[in-house]
# Entry
Amino acid sequence: MYSVWLSEDEQRVWRNYLSMTGRLQAAMNRQLQRDCGLSLAEYEVLVALDERAGCRISELGDRLGWEQSRLSHQLTRMRTRGLLRRDGSSDDRRVATVDLTPAGRRALETAAPGHAELVREIVFEGVTPAELRAVDRWTTAVLGRLGEVQ
# Structure
């Protein structure tokens, strides 16, 4: 039987996790803005489209874990900036696809090295292979349970 409250250890880990993810997202956003004028959200979309060219908008939303309204607004802003193009139905996101433009690909290629360096330095510096495998198992299990909840 579970207690209503988190244990002391669970509470400490949970609060550290929340603080870490919030601060890490802020650091990544600052680095991307400073180095290449992209937001973290724009970078996430560019990476997702690089991994799956011609992605359906509905699939992109699922891959990013974003609500439709957030994705729609983000894609509109990025299209206006010339970073991506939309093809297919203008009113049915299940049929419409998005893809990187040459400007979007250049933006990603400019942003990726600094982003990877920041993540490597902050997240992976000093982490042993065993620790990395343990974190991988933990995050995979959590993501699996989240998939079951949806």
